[in-house]
Every structure is written in C-alpha cells, then in structure tokens.
Amino acid sequence: MAMLDFYQTHAKDFFNQTINVDMHNIYQPFLENLPSGKQIISDIGCGSGRDSVFFAKQGFQVMAIDGSQNLIELAKQNHPTIDWQCLAFNEIKNQNWHNKFTGIWACASLLHVPFDELPNILNDLLEMLKPNGILYASFKYGDSEREKDGRFFVI
Questions:
Q1: β-strand 145-148 against 83-86: which pairing, if any?
Q2: What are residue 56's phi and psi, to 5 degrees?
Q3: pLDDT tens digits for 113-145?
Q4: What is the per-residue pLDDT across 32-73, written as a single tens digit (0 to 9) for each?
Q5: 1-9+40-154 sits in which CATH class?
Q6: Which residues form the signal peptide (predicted)?
Q7: What is the rounded distance in angstroms from the CA atom of residue 96 to the CA atom of residue 109?
Q8: Domain segments of the chain as ranges
C-alpha cells in the first residue's frame, strides 16, 4: 500500500513534525466523556505516539496501533510500557478485542481509509468499545478522495 510506504519512508520526518504538536484542547472533551472506571484506550493510527504517551501519562492503559513499523519503533522510545502494535486498519477486525476499550482515539488517521471501506472499519472499531465507551475520529474538511504527496486522503 502506497500510503504505508510513505510513512515507512518518511517516518523520522513525520515523527519530528508531529510529536510536539499541542493537542490539549482536543484531549479535554475526549477525557470528559470517557466512562467511569479504569481506562483502556486504543490509539488507532498512532503515528509518532504523541497522543498515546499523553494518555499513558494520565495513568491509562494504552494500546497504540499503526501500520508503519518504522513509526512504531520511533514512538516506542518515548514510552516503552505502551502496548505498541503494528497493524493495518483492515487487520484490526482479526484481533480478539471485542468490548476491550473504554475509548478509541483516531486522530487524523481514518482519513486515509477509502470512503467505501470506512463503514466496515468504523464498525470494527465500535465493536472494540466497552458499553458506554467513546470513539474520537477526526477528518479533513471536504467531500472527496484524493492523493497528495504520496498519501491518500478522504476529505
């Protein structure tokens, strides 16, 4: 897949561009809507691991998933206790994660899924949530699919 090739090839640059972006204004509504009790968060398309590390520092159990092994290796250096998984989006359904997570964080990652595949991926993610669990996903504005600089986007 060309999109994963981009992140494999440009892992270090992407890591450096994203690791220090301040996301606190986006974290807060997510945190406020998590169900009560022990938090188990999955960061889907974790990239640099920035968000995974933030959630781990809040005391949450975190599983971070990305399709780029090179990004996973860079991210592991910041927080080795996170459960780092190298999986493509379409491999998630093959895992035994039914009702496992209180929250799923998919920040600017699902925008790489073709529109016709998105409902199945979202259903797979929703099945991973515990009752009352929440899912955060962000996308670019628009209503089309396109490729830019070697990456596919749904916008």
A1: unpaired
A2: -65, -40
A3: 888 888 999 999 999 999 999 999 987 666 766
A4: 999 999 999 999 999 889 999 999 999 999 999 998 899 899
A5: alpha beta
A6: none
A7: 21
A8: 1-9+40-154
